[in-house]
């Protein structure tokens, strides 16, 4: 398992809607027994941005996040951080993170959980982009003669 793969699936799990993650959870069945190592617990994270996307950083504000860590009996440690206060979402994402660390289960979980969640997110982003594009206004300047 590479860090790039893990970073991708953790991002997909964290950015999925709670309903999408719940549907994916039902597809995998019962996970092996696990213990909560930490949380789930809610906290605040400072969001930072850059002026103009490239300038100096500044604090935008705080958002609530929920984190959770679980460990399978004698197995992998799964972790998750999700935006908002949904403790169930954070715990399920952490369990799925631990499951995905198992080389034997990963291909099946990638196909049945991660890819559908990634496609659903892309569809949501596409819908938002299309709505925004419908309101786009192009401005142009016409030159009137020689001044």
Topology summary:
Blueprint: H1 3-15, H2 18-28, E1 34-50, E2 57-72, E3 77-83, H3 87-100, H4 106-134
Antiparallel strand pairs: 1-2, 2-3
Structure described in brief:
By secondary structure, this protein is an alpha+beta fold. The chain contains four helices and three strands. Helices cover 46% and strands 27% of the residues.
Helix-strand topology string: HHEEEHH
Strand content: 25-35%
- The counted number of beta strands is 3
Q: How many structurally independent domains?
A: 1
Summarize model confidence as the mean pLDDT. 89
Given as residue ranges, the uncertain stretches (5+ residues, pLDDT < 50) are: none
Rg computed from alpha carbons, rounded to a whole number of angstroms: 21 Å
Total helical segments: 4
- From the N-terminal CA to the C-terminal CA, the straight-line distance is 67 Å
> Can you list the strand order of the major beta sheet?
1-2-3
Q: Overall 3D geometry?
A: elongated
Commentary on this structure:
The protein has 147 residues and is of the alpha+beta class. It has one domain (3-119). Helices cover 46% and strands 27% of the residues. The chain has four helices and three strands. It has helices at 3-15, 18-28, 87-100, 106-134, and strands at 34-50, 57-72, 77-83. The chain has a three-stranded antiparallel β-sheet with strand order 1-2-3. The longest helix is centred in the C-terminal third of the chain and has 29 residues, at 106-134.
């Amino acid at each position: 398992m590479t860090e790039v793969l893990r970073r991708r699936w953790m991002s997909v799990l964290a950015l999925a809607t709670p309903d999408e993650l719940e549907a994916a959870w039902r597809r995998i069945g019962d996970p092996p027994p696990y213990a909560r190592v930490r949380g789930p617990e809610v906290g605040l994270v400072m969001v930072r941005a850059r002026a103009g996307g490239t300038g100096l950083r500044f604090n935008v504000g705080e958002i609530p996040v929920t984190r959770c860590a679980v460990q399978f009996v004698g197995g992998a440690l799964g972790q998750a951080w999700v935006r908002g206060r949904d403790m169930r979402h954070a715990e399920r994402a952490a369990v799925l993170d631990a499951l995905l660390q198992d080389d034997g289960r990963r291909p099946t979980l990638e196909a049945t959980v991660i890819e559908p969640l990634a496609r659903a997110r892309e569809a949501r982003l596409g819908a938002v982009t299309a709505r925004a594009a419908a309101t786009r206004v192009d401005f142009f300047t016409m030159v009137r003669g020689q001044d």
